[in-house]
């Protein structure tokens, strides 16, 4: 029963998987952000609640692929926080994905209309 519940929880986010990646990269293109900032911005801007664990898992994967980089920010009072930035490769990656989406945008618009 627990395995079934886990699969249902994972499937809950699968339609957003590729889109979530692009949303995170686009946010990081505008400015460096903390993981929690990304979660809060997505919730505020798109009215979608994404668990922090999903965002942090995605950020770790992106960092392993050199799409994002991170460093510890210890300049503010309180605990140190990891801040994420888009790498040059990440900018190229994002631009490539967005150009492909622009090409299929008419198809997507037709699907949702």
Q: What does it look like?
A:
With 113 residues, this protein is of the alpha+beta class. The protein has a single domain (2-112), classed as Arc Repressor Mutant, subunit A (Orthogonal Bundle), CATH 1.10.10.10. Helix content is 66%, strand content 12%. The protein contains 5 helices and 3 strands. The protein has helices at residues 2-12, 17-30, 35-46, 52-64, 88-112; strands at residues 33-34, 68-73, 81-86. It has a 3-stranded antiparallel sheet. The chain starts with a helix and ends with a helix. The mean pLDDT is 87.
Number of separate structural domains: 1
Listing every helix as H and every strand as E from the N terminus to the C terminus, the arrangement reads HHEHHEEH
**Helix share, percent:** 55-70%
Q: What's the CATH H-level superfamily name?
A: Winged helix-like DNA-binding domain superfamily/Winged helix DNA-binding domain
What class would the helix/strand composition place it in?
alpha+beta
Spatial order of strands in the largest sheet: 1-3-2
Radius of gyration: 16 Å
Distance between the termini: 38 Å
User: Within the CATH hierarchy, at the fold level, what is the topology?
Assistant: Arc Repressor Mutant, subunit A
Largest sheet: 3 strands, antiparallel
| Mean pLDDT over the full residue set | 87
Let me know the number of strands: 3
CATH architecture heading: Orthogonal Bundle
Uncertain segments: none
Structure characteristics:
113 residues, alpha+beta, Arc Repressor Mutant, subunit A, three-stranded antiparallel sheet, 5 helices, 3 strands, 66% helix, globular
């Amino acid at each position: 029963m627990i395995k079934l519940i886990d699969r249902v929880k994972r499937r809950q986010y699968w339609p957003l998987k590729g889109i979530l990646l692009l949303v995170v990269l686009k946010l990081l293109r505008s400015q460096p952000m903390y993981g929690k900032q990304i979660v809060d911005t997505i919730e505020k801007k798109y009215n979608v609640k994404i668990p922090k664990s999903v965002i942090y898992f995605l950020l770790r994967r992106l960092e392993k692929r050199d799409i994002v980089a991170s460093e510890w920010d210890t300049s503010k009072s309180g605990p140190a926080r990891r801040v994420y930035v888009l790498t040059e490769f990440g900018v190229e990656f994002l631009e490539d994905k967005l150009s492909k989406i622009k090409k299929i945008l008419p198809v997507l618009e037709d699907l949702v209309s």
